[in-house]
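Lab notebook, bench 4. The sequencing result for the construct came back, and we need a structural model before the next group meeting so we can plan mutations. Quick request posted to the team channel:

Model the 3D structure of this chain.
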Amino acid sequence: MKAVVIRTFGDPDGLEIVDVPVPVPAPGQVRIATEAIGVGGVDAVIRRGTLAAYGFREGHILGSEVAGKVTAVGDGVDASWIGRRVWAFTGLSGGYAEQAVALIEDVLPLPDGLTGADAVTLGGSGVVAHFALDRARFTSGETVLVRGAAGSIGITAVQLAARGGANAVAVTTSSVERGARLRDLGATHVIDRSGEGGSDAPAGFDVVIDVVGGPQLPLFLDKMNSNGRYVAVGVVGGQPPADFGMRLMDAFRRSLSFATFSSDTVPGPDRQAVRSSHFADAAHGGLRTVVHAVLPLDQAVLAHREMDAGKVFGRVVLAP
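Done. Here's the predicted structure in token form:
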């Protein structure tokens, strides 16, 4: 079967499509013929070699979430799964392939009315957005800033905050066109990537959900209200300055809080319950997914170039 591997760490040209053996599901696993493969920010971070210290090596097959039909099951898995359309989390590897394996506890049936592309756009990102807002103790009436709102996590966080009764939902974005699209999804204010907005922008925020990180993170710590909660869910813009915590100490009397969040810390059944609810909501036209483009598997290099260039609004999906 065809799969995309990291031939060399670095820019997207280091990705290569190769022939590899069809995976055999181990006990407790299923094998899925993929119809849609999500291309996420973590894939780019792994591709660049940023996480090599965590055991990622050249030859690694990228991809963590897929949708498709179950073609085989391992020992201990009910054979009735065969032929069912599902979404699956494959870990942090194995997704960019014509067939992938996943543990049965990381598999969900897809409801009628939800495409595979929609599922891989919402499946992982929706869980992060939901539990990040929960970690921030977000409540109705508060002001929220979503930094890096043009990706699938940010787009879902905007919708959830708006539906949760936020007094204001501000977003950072790179263009007027993107700002208009985010307003259509529930944003009330648009500010630029340095945090500057119009005269009507909130002076401060109770909750910040940050997908970006990077050198400008301290500027947004300064924009929190007293008792504000800042939750970092990604570092697609790189690591923040090593001394960014001094900004919090300088604002000691404002009782600010900073936290990182990974959905790995949420019990599996809780993740699946939220994901199932999101899928049903999206299938009935509630939560909206934004698929930037669907590209063939052999165009993974182009998908990553688009992502690195900041051209993606929503999520790019690969289709074998």
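The two ends are 10 Å apart (CA to CA).
Will bring this to the meeting.
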